Amino acid sequence: MEKATFGAGCFWHVEDAFMKVNGVKSTKVGYMGGSLKNPTYKDVCTDMTGHAEVVQVEYDPSKLSYEELLDVFWSIHDPTTMNRQGPDIGTQYRSAIFVHNKNQEAAARASKTKLQNSGKSKRDIVTAIEPALEFYKAEEYHQQYYEKQRCLRIQY
């Protein structure tokens, strides 16, 4: 298994999208890229810790390539908006790829360049490509949030 970490706005939506991809074995939502140790959701929402809301994906590289994960990442958010996705505004919602090794970094940079040069967007891609730092798992009520909500609706 290998890990990939992405920030693309509110982690609930991002996690739900990656959970549906064949070859993804598990997902966790959390925080990465900031200065505060062991941040909470409340801390990150102050927009003062520097953390992004992220999804850490564990995947089977024999079934799913990192490049395919990048394709999913680009398709589920707007990588041209700085520190914003839809109504969510703040650095915690920034578009970011947190790379775990040099191969991921090269693939992420190539993928970003390919998308920028494709003409699909008239604006610049603002997605940051940063080294993966310590991952802080978000509170349990954030994990698989959409899936939990679906289960609650089915019960009624």
Salient structural properties:
single chain; 156 residues; alpha+beta; Peptide Methionine Sulfoxide Reductase, Chain A; six-stranded mixed sheet; two-stranded antiparallel sheet; 5 helices; 32% helix; 25% strand
Largest β-sheet summary: 6 strands, mixed
Q: What is the distance, rounded to the nearest whole angstrom, between the alpha carbons of the first and last residues? A: 37 Å
Query: Taking strands numbered 1, 2, ... along the chain, how are they ordered across the largest sheet?
Result: 7-6-1-3-2-8
| Mean pLDDT figure | 93
Indicate the overall shape: globular
CATH H level, superfamily name: Peptide methionine sulphoxide reductase MsrA
- Spell out the helices and strands N to C: EHEHEHEEEHEEH
Q: Assign the CATH topology.
A: Peptide Methionine Sulfoxide Reductase, Chain A
Structural class: alpha+beta
The residue fraction in helices comes out at 25-40%
Percent of sequence in beta strands: 25-35%
Measured on Cα atoms, how large is the radius of gyration?
Answer: 15 Å
Question: Given this structure, which CATH class is correct?
Answer: Alpha Beta
Summed up, the domain count is 1
What is the count of helical runs? Answer: 5
CATH architecture heading: 2-Layer Sandwich
Topology:
Blueprint lengths: L1 E7 L2 H9 L4 E9 L8 H4 L7 E8 L6 H10 L8 E2 L2 E2 L5 E5 L2 H16 L10 E4 L4 E2 L7 H11 L1
Parallel strand pairs: 6-7
Antiparallel strand pairs: 1-3, 1-6, 2-3, 2-8, 4-5
Helix pairs in contact: 3-4
